[in-house]
Amino acid sequence: MALRAVRSLAILSNPLRTYSTSGPLVNVSINEKTGIATATLQRPPVNSLNLELLTELCTTLEQLEKNKSRGLILTSSSNTVFSAGLDIYEMYKPNMDRYKQFWTTLQQTWINLYGSSYPTVAVVNGHAPAGGCLLALSCEYRIMLNNFTIGLNETKLGMIAPTWFAASMRNAIGTRQTELALITGNLFTTDEALKIGLVDEVVQSKNEALEKAGKFFDKFKRIPPHARTMTKTSLRGADIQALVKSRNEEMNKLTAFINDPKLQEAIGMYLESLKQKQNK
Ligand SMILES: CCCCCCCC/C=C\CC(=O)SCCNC(=O)CCNC(=O)[C@H](O)C(C)(C)COP(=O)(O)OP(=O)(O)OC[C@H]1O[C@@H](n2cnc3c(N)ncnc32)[C@H](O)[C@@H]1OP(=O)(O)O
């Protein structure tokens, strides 16, 4: 697996080729004509974000930054799920070293995506609860297919969305709507999400979404990249700095949180309910 990942990155760092790399969990292809990268999450059945998937995504984002990418489309290989959010097994009776590495990698992935200098579009081609919604919110533009749900539903699971999850949502829909969305843990239908600005466009097919994504990237053809990036940093930089400053403190909170026996019991029951769903 390590060898395959290294080969993928080697291909990514050669700017003259038609790129198509196949990491096991994130497929990256780069359009030769436009230079736009498409990163497709491919961890069946629901693209839940475990340490390995996050590590691959985080490295991909670093490479795109290093290679001065023209842009990124983030999407899913599933037809029904963009990402089911954090892999709940990473939080259920975890090995604490792995748990810490998991959170550190999630934080870094968010920093890389939310703060990328290149333009980013999420093609949300399926459900996007919790951490799945975070990935979409970290992009600059969200195009969602109809008939799915999206939102930060952590409170419904007895959890609290970390401050940087909330900041990402606030950046998209403002403080009032974020407060309402977070305290109720609401999962929005596609149309509701469009109405409050949680997504920017709703489409009927992935092809249509990719076409619209192309139009979003076209907007930057005549914008000097440094002006684009500095504007983005002026709007998002404070959220990133806030996390960078509080990383240790947050890790202490996350550790105390996960060691609470009541929470572990609740997570166990939630996992069971997800399994039961399949038997119905
Ligand atoms: C200091 C602050 C402290 C706060 C710290 C905590 C902060 C927590 C932050 C974020 C939380 C999260 O992201 S938690 C994850 C939340 N996600 C969810 O609740 C989604 C759960 N999943 C679903 O609702 C559905 O699976 C789906 C709508 C996404 C897809 O439905 P579908 O019918 O297509 O698939 P199944 O439900 O049958 O699932 C298939 C298979 O996948 C397993 N599964 C689903 N989601 C997860 C997940 N998030 N993690 C791990 N595994 C998951 C599900 O159990 C099924 O498994 P089996 O085939 O083995 O039964």
UniProtKB/TrEMBL annotation:
GO terms for molecular function: delta(3)-delta(2)-enoyl-CoA isomerase activity. It catalyses: (3Z)-decenoyl-CoA = (2E)-decenoyl-CoA; (2E)-tetradecenoyl-CoA = (3Z)-tetradecenoyl-CoA; (3Z)-dodecenoyl-CoA = (2E)-dodecenoyl-CoA; (3Z)-octenoyl-CoA = (2E)-octenoyl-CoA. Pathway: Lipid metabolism; fatty acid beta-oxidation. It is found in: Mitochondrion matrix. Coiled coil: none annotated. Its main location: mitochondrion. GO terms for biological process: fatty acid beta-oxidation. It comes from the Eukaryota. One of its GO terms (cellular component) is mitochondrial matrix. Keywords: Acetylation, Fatty acid metabolism, Isomerase, Lipid metabolism, Mitochondrion, Transit peptide. Pfam families: ECH_1. Homotrimer. Key enzyme of fatty acid beta-oxidation. Able to isomerize both 3-cis (3Z) and 3-trans (3E) double bonds into the 2-trans (2E) form in a range of enoyl-CoA species, with a preference for (3Z)-enoyl-CoAs over (3E)-enoyl-CoAs. The catalytic efficiency of this enzyme is not affected by the fatty acyl chain length. This is Enoyl-CoA delta isomerase 1, mitochondrial. It comes from Zophobas morio. The lineage of its organism: Eukaryota, Metazoa, Ecdysozoa, Arthropoda, Hexapoda.
